[in-house]
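> forwarded from #structure-qc
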């Protein structure tokens, strides 16, 4: 790959992935694709930034031609919470955006397309513990429905057109650079910000809610390791399970109290409780481990220490 376009570069994963890829491939070779939002200074100062939308074919093609793009990463998505409020928008962005990008990739003979998936492909009838790589995919959210279809579509382009399409089923991603937006697992980021700012947090899922989670450094590692893996060694394509850790909200509160003993938490579950309840507790990622050497580094306490330090510094500077 010479020139990579990251669609959705201003988002939680896209913003950090763009910078990590620029460190590897060089700033000029990784183009940040942002929607109409103002990109951060970090994105604009380290390489090219272009306004693109997964749904706008002409703008995408112009950028592909301008920078001789040979790989696309599609990080643009409507997540589970927002999806339930606006199912048609989720379908439009997640399905039409994806097929638009796959078709452009096919037309321009891209070397690789990365299409992220999610634990949202699973549903209430999927085994909840150590959820297998290959299992029942009957999600009950529109986001999950689009992610299942997206995985199938990615695999279809591999088989039908001989393309290199890859993807991971991300668990909840926890980070301190860019806030997530519209997801069910957003509580696992908000809890740290509120712990630093107010020493208390009201959580929208209950204390026993357990979900698979991953810290951003591991998420970047997983994504880049899969991108760089030998295609011939991949037994799966658009749907690798990747695990790192799993814990309840009560476990998170306990971990935070090791640093902020006065931290208080209370619970006011809303519609996202049902979404969280339909997802697994933990996933079996042995296929990712065997096929491309996946191995996470962070556990809950290591992540908590890092998150509180980073957010504490932002708070001290008056940035949050
Ligand atoms: C969400 O909560 O919707 C996302 C996800 C797990 O894909 N973070």
């Amino acid at each position: 790959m010479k020139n990579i376009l990251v669609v959705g570069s201003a988002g939680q994963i896209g913003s950090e992935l763009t910078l990590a890829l620029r460190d590897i491939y060089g700033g000029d070779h990784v183009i940040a694709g942002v929607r109409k939002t103002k990109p951060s200074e970090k994105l604009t100062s380290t390489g090219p930034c272009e306004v693109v939308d997964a749904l706008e074919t002409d703008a995408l093609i112009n950028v592909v031609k301008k920078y001789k793009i040979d790989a696309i990463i599609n990080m643009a998505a409507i997540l589970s919470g927002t999806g339930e409020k606006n199912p048609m928008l989720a379908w439009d962005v997640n399905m039409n955006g994806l097929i638009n990008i796959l078709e452009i990739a096919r037309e321009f003979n891209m070397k690789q397309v990365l299409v992220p998936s999610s634990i949202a492909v699973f549903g209430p009838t999927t085994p909840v513990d150590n959820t297998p790589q290959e299992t029942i995919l009957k999600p009950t959210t529109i986001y999950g429905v689009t992610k299942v279809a997206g995985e199938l579509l990615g695999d279809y382009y591999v088989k039908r057109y001989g393309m290199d399409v890859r993807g991971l089923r991300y668990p909840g991603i926890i980070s301190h650079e860019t806030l997530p937006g519209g997801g069910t697992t957003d509580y696992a980021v908000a809890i740290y910000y509120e712990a630093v700012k107010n020493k208390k947090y009201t959580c929208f899922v209950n204390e026993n809610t357990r979900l698979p989670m991953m810290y951003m450094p591991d998420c970047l590692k997983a994504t880049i390791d899969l991108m760089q893996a030998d295609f011939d060694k991949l037994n799966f394509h658009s749907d690798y399970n990747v695990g790192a850790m799993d814990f309840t909200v009560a476990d998170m509160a306990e971990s935070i109290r090791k640093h902020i003993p006065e931290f208080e938490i209370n619970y006011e579950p809303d519609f996202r409780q049902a979404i969280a309840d339909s997802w697994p507790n933990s996933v079996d990622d042995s296929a990712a481990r065997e096929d491309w050497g996946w191995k996470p580094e962070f556990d809950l306490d290591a992540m908590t220490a890092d998150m509180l330090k980073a957010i504490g510094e932002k708070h001290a500077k008056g940035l949050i």
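QC bot note: Residues 55 and 100 are 7 Å apart (CA to CA). Residues 79-80, 118-120, 143, 170, 172, 183-185 surround 2-amino-3-ketobutyric acid (CB under 6 Å).
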